[in-house]
Design brief:
64 residues, three-stranded antiparallel sheet, 25% helix, flat
Length: 64
């Protein structure tokens, strides 16, 4: 039997800073894709659509 957790990795969640290229590291969340990580983060923290647009899920360098 295979569980989804066997394929999930920890994505880094970052929030884009306004009018800047930098981001603020918010934490980590397991998922299979970056988009799924963003959606899980949004659900966990009850983000609005506007807040979700500022969130990025980044693959940690250990997986590149």
């Amino acid at each position: 039997m295979v569980f989804h957790g066997d394929y999930e990795i920890e994505f880094e969640i970052h929030k884009k800073c306004a009018n800047d290229w930098r981001t603020e590291h918010l934490g980590h969340i397991p998922a299979m894709t970056a988009e799924q990580a963003r959606q899980r983060w949004a659900e966990q923290y009850n983000l609005t659509t506007e807040e979700l647009q500022k969130i990025e899920a980044i693959l940690p360098t250990q997986y590149v």
